[in-house]
Fold:
Amino acid sequence: MERILEVNDLHVTFTTYGGTVQAVRGVNFHLDKGETLAIVGESGCGKSVTSNAIMRLIPSPPGKITQGSIIFKGQNLAAYSEKKMRSIRGVDISMIFQDPMTALNPTLTIGTQLVEGLKEHRKITAAQAKEKAIEMMELVGIPNPEERLKQYPHQFSGGMRQRIVIAIALICDPDLLIADEPTTALDVTIQAQILELFATIQKRTGVSIILITHDLGVVAKIADRIVVMYAGKIIESGSKREIFYESKHPYTQGLLDSVPRLDEKGELKPIVGTPPDLFSPPKGCPFTARCPFAMEVCDKVYPAPEKISDTHYVDCWLQDERAKRLLAAKTLQT
Amino acid sequence: MLKYILKRLLIMIITLWVIITLTFVLMVNIPGSPFNTDQASNETVQANLEAHYNLDQPYYIQYLLYIKSIATFEFGPSIKQPNQTVNDLLSRGFPISFELGIITIALAVVSGVLVGIIAALRHNGFLDYLTMGIAVLGISIPNFILATILIQQLAVNLEIFPTATWRSPAHMVLPVLALATGPMAIIARLTRSTMLEVLTQDYIKMAKAKGLSPWKVVFKHALRNALMPVVTIMGTLFAGILTGTFVIEQIFAIPGMGRYFVESINQRDYPVIMGTTVFYSAFLIIMLFIVDIVYGILDPRIKVHQKGGK
Structure:
């Protein structure tokens, strides 16, 4: 498998009047060609900041990549100049935004917005650009593309607009597509169609996808691997099967438990409490305060990643040999 | 679109009619007559003069005659300067006033928008604070004070520009500056604030994610959207500039329409009041109409609204 992206020890901070927010605190993950990686976690855990950091779209100031590398096809994007980065954006790495209602410019036609990236990066005639635009519109399933190209965003429904956003992202044949909550703003039936579209496109173009979401249903549908983020760190990562059926971190388990189920009656099960303040993140495991299994050590030292299998890693003291012995002893006593 | 324009034309005519009627009502209610101030005019002369200008007729006849003169665009001779017709005054004064107004508007819009963009892009930077500080000054200082300061400093003390009249481009600098500063400052502040808002929009991030140059992101994607509120206030600004020209023309002794307008009211020169009022109002109404059309061009969502007929 060819490795497309490798993020090593990425740190991102935001300097504000109130102090420095450590939004991403040492994130490691990788992505292979044709793979779909899901980044899950609750709001404010650093998912979107991570993806914006890969695109180098973090507003600076106040944001800054303070440490770490982003290796994309052997090149470190974290060290790229803004100008060099422009030749990557939209060409090699594309992005899809959360809300299709606001992601398209209301004053420009769909056609203009669709071919704009193509015209910027490739030498191409107007006729060729139009041909490519029609081809893309067909790929994402928009009927009468020729006519629709002349229309404005307000003449399209939300689902249609998201298809157009996807077409814009794919028009330069990128190697990596970052989708930041691509279905959150859509209603459920449209969500399913858009996810279907992702699967079709990936099969046809072999594009790698990073999917950022808090919707585990979406993850179950299209992800190959999953990383779980909490308070700016990746606390567990593994294949889809490993995360859904053999999750080791109490936070991951809590997330899975909180998904409403059709076959069970009763109240929703939230994870009690709120994430820690990232102005001064805790020394130890950030989940300690909310963790039903918290031990004395959890608050003091951050756990080292524990390898469960070749693909499955978890940052939790419960996986430490000593903790396992202690737990075993406790079960014996009772 | 054609239906919309026709509808607008009808509304414009009605607006104009309301203005005309109001002017007439105001005119007959202001005490005094054009002949009061004349020395040594005996009663017969006075009566003859009034008969000559139809001022002895009942008000409704005067009103109808007045409407007729507007409809035919034939305002007749000025009472105060009987050797000139109102049309003469207008055709002499209007080109000058128009020149002053258009140069002012062009300067105010172009430089105001540019300054606003620069301030927004340098948000919270030195240039932002500097330009916005100057803009606050520009809004607060009335144009007649600014005009006096400009004349004193640039014309009298430094002798860079001529003090008054309207002959060469050098003559235009001071009046245009005095008149344009206020609108320019308003436009700059408005452009800055809407630009700041637009720059945080998702479609701007999306444009950046396409790998477009900062230039294209700002001018192709952001500016069009940021200009919308600016175009909206343009109508009011035009009105402000128009009334501003009365004062500025007086100060700089520019032989435009503004002077005739002010003088005619002071002297109760009814035909001239009529002519200039109608002319000014018609001009302003047409400007507002153009603003609305531009609005539709900038924002395609508005065009569809019109097509729906409502």
Summary: Chain A has a mean pLDDT of 86.
